[in-house]
Specification:
With 317 residues, this protein is mainly beta. The protein has helices at residues 3-6, 9-24, 219-225, 247-261; strands at residues 43-50, 58-63, 80-84, 89-94, 101-103, 115-124, 127-136, 142-151, 161-171, 177-184, 187-188, 195-198, 206-217, 237-245, 279-280, 284-291, 293-299. The chain is globular, with a radius of gyration of 21 Å.
């Protein structure tokens, strides 16, 4: 599910809630309930700037679509996208043309402690607009030294299989927030298959074989996501990325997840489905975040390798 659809998932949830309440009211009078589609088009921004020289810095631009529509969100093509640090400015080029994916120059690499501004001039919903977002890159909060895997599911016909991913490293003292994503070979996991967490359970500590996340792969996921949803095979390279993020991006991600799973009840708590955004200048959703990253990789030797303790807290290393 794309950001553009999950941001507005709340409207569909509210409509369904209203229908349920009416059904429970016991009224005999026939009532018609009409739902209304969005009355405007939003620019949807997905942008992350890292401090890794090997990363290709990208900005993804799409238009929002109604939650009840099955169509793929239309890309925003032909925009002018740039990032600046107050001294230098870097122009992003749409690659490939017409894709809505804007790629920064090879020399662009973020620096912790520096504040970056994303500028976008684009036509959204037939209207020209100028949008901006600002993000300060945090200092790195976690040093990831190694990553490993263990098989934890069934392998019937290579479907519905589960692996646990463990991490070795060290956390920096103080409150830190992390965005945990991964890459399988050259395929990057999308935001809805990633996670965010804080360090309150391991603040300032060394991490030894910490089960940081799981890898769940099914035939349906492979159909929807391609390579990132495939069954692990010998020779595959799995890379774990730990991004140190500001608290406001952590809140954005938690709101995104809540709206995806539809777990919040509007009458009982605040609505995280109203995801915060740091994009200004018009009707826009999404986020621009500058963050340092620490990465480690492991080559798959035996996809069904079980857990065993070669050393205290270790996985199958």
């Amino acid at each position: 599910m794309s950001i553009s659809k999950t941001i507005i998932a709340r409207f569909g949830f509210l409509a369904g809630l209203c229908l349920c309440l009416l059904a429970l009211s016991g009224c005999n009078e026939e009532i018609e309930v009409h739902t209304k589609s969005m009355d405007r088009t939003y620019l949807v921004v997905e942008a992350m700037l890292t401090d890794c020289a090997d990363d290709t810095q990208r900005v993804l631009l799409t238009e929002s679509v109604d939650y009840f529509e099955e169509e793929v969100p239309p890309v925003v093509s032909g925009a002018r996208v740039s990032v600046s640090d107050g001294v230098d400015s870097w122009l992003f080029i749409e690659t490939p043309a017409g894709s809505g994916c804007y790629v920064g120059p090879a020399e662009l690499c973020g620096v912790p402690g520096v504040t970056y501004k994303l500028s976008i001039d684009a036509v959204v919903g037939g209207t020209e607009g100028h949008y901006e977002a600002v993000s300060k890159m945090e200092q790195r909060g976690f040093r990831l030294d190694a990553v490993d895997y263990m098989y934890a599911g069934n392998a019937t016909m290579k479907l519905d299989s589960l692996w646990t991913i463990a991490a070795w490293g060290e956390d920096t003292p103080g409150a830190n927030y992390y965005y945990i994503s991964a890459k399988l070979n050259d395929a990057v996991f999308p935001i809805e298959l990633s996670l965010a967490m804080d360090d309150k359970y391991f603040d300032g500590q060394k991490v030894i074989g910490f089960p940081i996340t799981t890898l769940y792969q099914t035939a349906e996921m492979y159909k929807q996501y391609g390579e990132v949803g495939k069954y692990l095979e010998t020779g595959d390279v799995f890379t774990l990325n730990v991004y140190t993020i500001p608290e406001d991006y952590y809140q954005f991600y938690m709101g995104f997840v809540s709206s995806t799973v539809g777990s919040s009840i509007p009458m009982l708590q605040s609505q995280p489905a109203n995801c915060p955004t740091n994009v200004t200048g018009g009707d826009a959703v999404g986020y621009f975040v500058a963050c340092p990253v620490s990465s480690a990789s492991v080559t798959i030797e035996d996809p069904l390798r079980p857990y065993y303790k070669k050393f205290f807290g270790g996985f199958g290393r």
